[in-house]
Amino acid sequence: MTRKLHSIIASTALALFATLGSAEAATTVKFWHTFNKSNGEALDKIIAQFEATNPEIDVEAEFVGNYNDVVAKLQAAIPAGRGPDAVILEVTRYGLFANNNILADLTPYFDADPLKNDLYDYAREVGVIDGKTYIVPFNSSTPVLYFNKDIFTRAGLSVDTPLKTFDDILAASKTISEKLGKEGISGIAAPGQFARWGLVMANDSELIDPKTGEILIDKPNTIEAYQWMASLVHQNKVASPDGVTDEDNGRDAFLAGKVGIMMNSTGNYVGSKKALGDNLAVRPMPCNKICSVPVGGAGIGIMATSPKEVQDAAYKFVSYASSPESNALWFAATGYLPINKKSTALPAAADALATQPGIDVAINSLPYAHGRARTTVVTWMRSTEYKMWEAMALGQRPVDATMKDFAEQTRTENQRAGN
In whole angstroms, what separates CA 168 from the centre of its chain? Predict the structure, then answer.
């Protein structure tokens, strides 16, 4: 074998071993999330950009379903030791895991991170329980009111029709259903759980007090809000029942031009704009008794059981995901709120604000946006609320009695959970 051939083989072997060594040195972060379709594509871009600047870290991202699915899959995976290293958790549900020492306390990372001072106060607050940071915000939202301008016009309603109170919204919904019902068009989509919570807050109440943890489900203003919501379906018949049994049905009908009004997350803005184009209009949620909206969305937490080097790598990704560059990309691609004060000055976000009418409505709602309770019982309460809502909206149980029963069950569960 010639000296030249020996040299080539040696060089090739060295290159191969270097490549293998680099691959072996990379730290893998298993990341569970809840984003598919266009939102998933935007997240993929953020991950690709992170990995390009941090080649020593491999983010292994997996879509695992919606917020409820994440909770259920985590509960199943943790005892079996098959959980992720980092996970998207909705801002009212992560307490179940933080309060049971399943999530790592991120306070040492967060306090040392310049990102802390770049986040808006509302975004920083949603990740905190008892003074400790357990999730760092990623996709923050408030509910907003969407409507289809073409449907309003065809129903004889001005696009400036007031939609500031429950009565305003019901009146517009009735007009649409009466004028266009024969065409298969409903006045309004049955409100999903996020919107329901927002409507309770707009009626000057809460489900659970975010400061004290007091159960407020059976307070008069809470019951009144649910009576109005249920009446949209059962009594006034301006909302289709199929949006009660599966709230995505109401959203999909709105996107298909079959519903006049929808109250939903600002995270639905981009999809709604693509579906309806210039016929999409966006307004703030109603201020029935007061102006108050819930902060929604999710943040990223890190599992306490992951090795220290994996936690370090995971936090590096978490911080990058909330950086100005990532947040500007995310806001422009999805409509979720800016969480970083520096994001809106960047070209991607500035262009979205200049060219996408209505994308700023949720931003303008932030002065009266509030974080919600995140005690352990909230996860149980939210899961149970779906069944209670279905019974009320479909006329199977009276609202007053159902809400009182629901409140007592929640208090019992709260005591059992040790809150």
Answer: 27
Helix or strand run (H / E) with residue 145 = strand 143-148
- What burial letters (b/e) apply to 247-276, b meaning 16+ CB within 10 Å? bebbbbbbbeebbbbbbbbbbbbbbbbebb
pLDDT in tens, the chain (419 residues): 444 334 443 444 434 434 444 445 699 999 999 999 999 999 999 999 999 999 999 999 999 999 999 999 999 999 999 999 999 999 999 999 999 999 999 999 999 999 999 999 999 999 999 999 999 999 999 999 999 999 999 999 999 999 999 999 999 999 999 999 999 999 999 999 999 999 999 999 999 999 999 999 999 999 999 999 999 999 999 999 999 999 999 999 999 999 999 999 999 999 999 999 999 999 999 999 999 999 999 999 999 999 999 999 999 999 999 999 999 999 999 999 999 999 999 999 999 999 999 999 999 999 999 999 999 999 999 999 999 999 999 999 999 999 999 999 999 999 998 85
SS3 71: helix
Q: Positive or negative, the Cα torsion across 275, 279, 282, 286?
A: negative
Amino acid at 41: E
Dmax (CA) for the chain in angstroms is 92
Amino acid at 360: D
Phi, psi for 190 (deg, rounded to 5) = -55, 130
Determine which helix (DSSP H) or strand (DSSP E) holds 263, and give its type and residue range: strand 259-265
**CB contact at 8 A, 296 and 142:** yes
Could you tell me the two tokens for 163? 């939609």
What stretch of H or E contains 129? strand 128-129
Q: Which of 408, 407, 378 is nearest to 226 (CA)?
A: 407
How many Cβ atoms sit within 10 Å of the Cβ of residue 286? 22
- Number of C-beta neighbours around residue 220 at 10 A: 11
Report CA torsion sign: 217, 223, 225, 229: positive
For residue 268, what are the CA distances in angstroms to 251, 327, 363, 370, 406? 9, 16, 14, 20, 30
Give the DSSP per-residue string, 175-233: HHHHHHGGGT-EEEPPP-HHHHHHHHHHTT--SB-TTT--B-TTSHHHHHHHHHHHHHH
